[in-house]
Amino acid sequence: MTPVDPTEVANRAAALRARIAAAGGDDVTVVAVTKTFDAGAIDAAIAAGFNDVGESYAQETLAKLPDVTGTPRVHFIGQLQRNKVRRLAPHVDVWQSVDRPELASEIANRAPNARIMVQVDISGEATKAGVDPQDLAMLLDHSRELGLEVIGLMGVAILAEPEAARPGFRRLRSLVDTHGLRHCCMGMTADLEIAIDEGSTMIRVGTQLFGERVQR
Ligand SMILES: *Cc1c(COP(=O)(O)O)cnc(C)c1O
Q1: How confident is the model at residue 215 (pLDDT cuts 50, 70, 90)?
Q2: In CATH, which superfamily holds the domain spanning 6-209?
Q3: Is 140 helix (H, G, I), strand (E, B) or coil?
Q4: What is the pLDDT of residue 216?
Q5: Phi, psi (rounded to 5 degrees) for 144
Q6: In 3D, which of 145, 142, 204, 149 has the Cα closest to residue 181?
């Protein structure tokens, strides 16, 4: 896991806030994505005013959290195998990447009444994670019947030029409205302005806050 310089994170945080303000996103929640960075990155995020942090890898998350000094709200945003849920359950506040009924069931077993988001495939590429939009209503019903609190939808746009993300973002926002949900979690370092323009309520930002990630 890569260490960070807290002063640099503070400077990057100011630049991020300027970008968000310029995009008209003053009410947007920032999830600071600390994957591949060490426990100090989580504390640096908290010091910079970001209490919501995003993690993508189960083993890495479990390894670093004991070394965190502060008390972040942990959003799990990565693809998740069912057998990882039990150990993560005491640490995760929002399960953002729920994309299939079996995973929702396991979360409901291990973390009753947990807060979740359903990840929707807005990439238009069959390879991306997320439930197919046509199966969304069923997964929402299933999750609610299990007692899970569905707080919104999340999506990851295609990795192309930022403007290519717009149709997918618009689609996700319209699904959030159709289902009367609170959060529309979309937008990352490269495309956060477009996401905010399309009605994001929560962005997930790694590179802008912590610098380039070293390949795992
Ligand atoms: C890594 C990751 C991010 C952060 O991406 P950046 O481009 O570094 O801001 C956001 N969302 C998900 C699902 C991720 O895996």
Answers
A1: confident
A2: Alanine racemase (3.20.20.10)
A3: helix
A4: 65
A5: -70, -40
A6: 149
Q: Is the CB of 33 under 6 A from ligand 1?
A: yes
CA of 102 to the centre of ligand 1 (A): 24
The number of helices, as runs of H, and strands, as runs of E, in the chain is 9, 8
- Ordered by start, the domain boundaries in the chain are 6-209
Structure token digits, residue 20: 């968000």
Distance 156 CA to ligand 1 centre (A): 8
Nearest atom, ligand 1, residue 208 CA: 9
Structure tokens at 203: 């962005």
Tens digit of pLDDT for each residue in 162-197? 899 999 999 999 999 999 999 999 999 999 999 999
HSE of 214, CA atoms in CB hemisphere, 13 A: 7
pLDDT digits 0-9 by tens, 56-82: 999 999 999 999 999 999 999 999 999
CA of 212 to the centre of ligand 1 (A): 11
Candidates 4, 29, 33: which one to mutate for ligand 1, based on the most atoms within 8 Å of Cβ? 33
Residue 187's nearest CA partner among 3, 16, 5 is 16
Kindly give the distance from the C-alpha atom of residue 188 to the centroid of ligand 1, in angstroms, as a whole number. Answer: 6
- Lowest mean pLDDT, pick from 11-20, 111-120, 121-130: 121-130
State the distance from the centre of ligand 1 to the C-alpha of 42, rounded, in angstroms: 15
Cβ–ligand 1 distance for 205 under 6 Å, the answer yes
